[in-house]
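Worked Example 4.2. Consider the chain below.
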Amino acid sequence: MQAMGHPAVARLVFAVLAPLALSAGAAAGTIEGAVTFPSQVVPAMTVYAAELDSARVHTARLARGQANFTIEVPPGRYLLFLAPNEPGAPDIYGAYTRYSLCSPHGVDGQCEDHTLIPVTVAAKAARVAVAIDDWYLTDESAAQIDHLLGAAAGGARGTAEPLSAPRFSEYPSEAFEPGAAPKIESAAGELSDEDRDIARQALAGGPNFAGHVTLSLTSCGLTCGRIVLIDWRNGVVSELAPQGSSDETQATLPCRPDEALQFRRDSRLLSVTRVRGSAVVTQYYVWSQKRAAPMRGVEYQRPAQAFCAVAAG
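Applying the procedure from the previous section yields the following structure tokens:
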């Protein structure tokens, strides 16, 4: 990753600015779980929460010996499963199934159903607790998981982000109690008077990114926005560095405009999705607490048709 230059300006395109501000503040739910592994030593594992309505897969990594997890997800219905990911660990899946709800497991003939069952995260029930302890999946259940992972990696549906794409929950932000809104500190000429007014209005709502940062979209035309980040600790203003040519940034997303910009207050991760020729590119940035600036991360590119298939599916 490379640090972003402080005065750099990004003119990134978004179809409609207002919906972005609303979607960025969408409430997230939490799936909390306990893992039981059929041996004395719990290997390092990856927990997957597959959203049924979009084929997106959210992940959380468990260190060796760790038996509890938390995954932050938007409201929806999720199938939960996991797999060991350390060398020498068995190549098997564990999952949350009807077997997980059957107690006691040891009674012969009483716990034979290994069908994956969804958990629902709703606005009124944003916290869900589960226990994943079924390591005796049928071939049908294992094939279902293979399909979900294939779709998430660009297989069956070819539309969702790869499993290797970063997740908001993987970059939690530090707790921060905001006081009075900071005075914007920037060199003369960096922000126009109009941009300053927009930034001050955004500050009135408090931090909305990385715990102590306010991310603001200032207008550069009918279909584009300028991403400005204001640090509440010192009022310093930073922006994303420009990426690609001006032609790449002067086209709107063909669909799913609410995903052009995604960020949360409780995470240091920021994603920007834009058009590049006939493809759709998602770029990820992580706010560096040490550098007090966004740092460029990975990039994923998909055909526009594949990107839009999620909305149509």
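Residues 206 and 228 are 14 Å apart (CA to CA). The longest strand covers residues 293-303. Compare this with Example 4.1 before moving on.
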